């Protein structure tokens, strides 16, 4: 069994940091005021970050800082300064998504360890290997990995593996979600996720007719339950996982305290060889926050059971139903103990939820401080409540008070020290502090001790001064004194020596745990423009997922055919179909690129490697690659590789990174503005491509709404849409791997901006035709061909279109 297991807890505030450390976390991850994927948490400014590192390191806890957003070139100087600051203050690692940031960090601060964020969508061993070659010492796996896959990945990995064990889940693969940005302009990749998966949706057909019986399915059909792996800890430890991560930087400190404490106890019992859950662990986890619980994909593909479809926020703990109402009181037969001060919520039959605080509890007509399960009690009747309504406790006052004992001014976790005090007439008084590890701090008074005239030193008097450590991180457990009876030294001098000795102990303790890093390193400089001409002719690429679409695109004037990848038809394209697509391209004098899937599980890696080898035999012009793992697998073959937009190339450093990796071009992030595209293209680092037409993918998920809610085979026939509160319809398609893709309600159309792409030196513009029919793809290809050739053409024929982020950007 793996005996080196790290428990990592979140902190969005100083109190949450204290709660995590005091409750037993081995490491804490937190964010600064910028560049972290939870920008709505309070986060830490620079002064607080430095203080947090010292606070944690003194207690032998590591600090990891999230720098896991995509950043623009204009932000890179600040990122460079920030990385150097993090390294200098002794941060144990930075968690990174953006390959540009990773490349910059390796150049500027090579001493700072890097972790590959779950936003990098590392889902298999090949992805881990790629990250290792990039210098990442740890990979945070996608939350969709199964236990068996985690075992295989851990067995092959040379670096550390981290998995989430508790907290909120994303419905989409992390790092691949554009839903928040496309709906509301707030990018999850930029730390501003508006949580659109927690909003209500209807599942409708192509005519807008609802397909779900609201009695059996709730409105929140994209809202997952919370992850809870407490009972699976022995299996995860046995699998070889290095670090267990609790999600929750937006959560309050009480949540951090309760969850960390429970997982700490459970892990310790497992490592001790006698695994058992702490008393009331499951109840307390549910009480502190839950949307109901799931083990996600660790055991199986859960389908609709992963959903918290009736409530997207805290459900609390069920305590009973209202039996009857009388004289302003609701009477409940309790299934859980309750206490005055508990926060309750009634799920009323009409009107949703009604909250009330149990300020008074009546048992047999008499007010009581609390009541036990099985008793019938009366509480103040909430508005709208009636007999039969269910009652949940959403705040347990006793549990909250227990949680609050882990943080705050009166609950510091102090470090024990012993002290020795020695003095002789004619010499300074000396104080030596020794901590629990044998580290020492010492100091002497500036005053030379004299024979006492009136007030000689006493052991009690000296101890009173030496034990005054209240504002420090230490407390005195014992003291020994060695000085003659008739000697004196001023109290002020003793106090000053105490302060100096404890400060030296602190510094030595910190340095022993984490040696100081160099403050040197390379100076930051912008990446300059590479010499050479920009693309003189902008080419038109078209992504097709059927042979008739490929032929239509070739006939209509596409320069490059992109074939395959994740299809929107629920079926895999055969090697024979790929061969025919290559034949079509060559017949018409076009280039052919084979697209590859952006999500590859560990189980599917071997099959994909075999498929790539067969495709390489067809001598394509290149592979279009949208994941780190596929790059690792495809890099073994003698085929040119092109980085696709799911790799989130957002800045010149990421372009330069892919250039050095041998890419022959890169499709830029769909979240860039036109101005940013122009600036990146002008640097001439790598030929760039922009998606300009088609339905943009907002989400890719292992969960399939039609298949889960309508029946397993439903997703293979018919057309399905999500309808939001504004009446917008978002197409749902499934690929050959049974993954669900949610597409934008509006079709991207940049037909009127083709000339601007040309002038910018963009090498390729792309039509994604996978959701189009043959006629529609032929028309779009013909129009963009005309625009590229300088013929007059207008987007007016296209209805329900969007220009995406090209002219509005994201935050």
Description:
The protein contains 22 helices and 41 strands. The protein is α/β, with parallel strands linked by helices. Strand 22 and strand 23 form a beta hairpin. Helix 14 (547-556) runs parallel beside helix 15 (575-587) and helix 14 (547-556) runs parallel beside helix 22. The chain is globular, with a radius of gyration of 31 Å. The two termini are 45 Å apart.
The percentage helix is 25-40%
The biggest sheet amounts to: 10 strands, mixed
- Shape descriptor reads globular
End-to-end gap: 45 Å
- Tell me the Rg in angstroms: 31 Å
Low-pLDDT residue intervals, each spanning 5 or more residues = none
SSE-based structural type? alpha/beta
Average the pLDDT over all residues and give the rounded result. Answer: 94
- β-strand number: 41
Strand content: 15-25%
Number of helices: 22
List keywords for this structure.
10-stranded mixed β-sheet; alpha/beta; 8-stranded parallel β-barrel; 29% helix
Q: How are the secondary structure elements laid out?
A:
Layout: E1 6-11, H1 14-23, E2 27-31, H2 46-58, E3 62-67, H3 76-88, E4 93-96, H4 99-108, E5 114-116, H5 125-133, E6 136-140, H6 147-156, E7 160-167, H7 179-184, E8 202-205, E9 226-228, H8 233-239, E10 243-246, H9 253-271, H10 281-288, E11 293-294, E12 317-326, E13 329-333, E14 338-339, E15 343-348, E16 352-357, E17 361-363, E18 366-368, E19 370-371, E20 376-380, E21 390-395, H11 397-404, E22 415-422, E23 428-435, E24 440-448, E25 450-451, H12 459-466, E26 474-482, E27 487-488, H13 491-513, E28 539-544, H14 547-556, E29 560-564, H15 575-587, E30 591-595, H16 602-616, E31 622-625, H17 628-634, E32 641-643, H18 652-660, E33 666-667, H19 674-682, E34 688-694, E35 697-701, H20 705-710, E36 720-723, E37 729-734, E38 740-743, E39 747-749, H21 754-760, E40 764-768, H22 774-788, E41 801-802
Parallel strand pairs: 1-2, 1-10, 2-3, 3-4, 4-5, 5-6, 6-7, 7-10, 9-11, 22-26, 28-29, 28-40, 29-30, 30-31, 31-32, 33-34, 34-40, 39-41
Antiparallel strand pairs: 7-9, 8-36, 12-13, 12-21, 13-20, 14-19, 15-16, 15-21, 17-18, 17-20, 22-23, 23-24, 25-27, 34-39, 35-38, 36-37, 37-38
Helix pairs in contact: 1-9, 3-4, 4-18, 5-17, 6-8, 9-10, 9-11, 14-15, 14-22
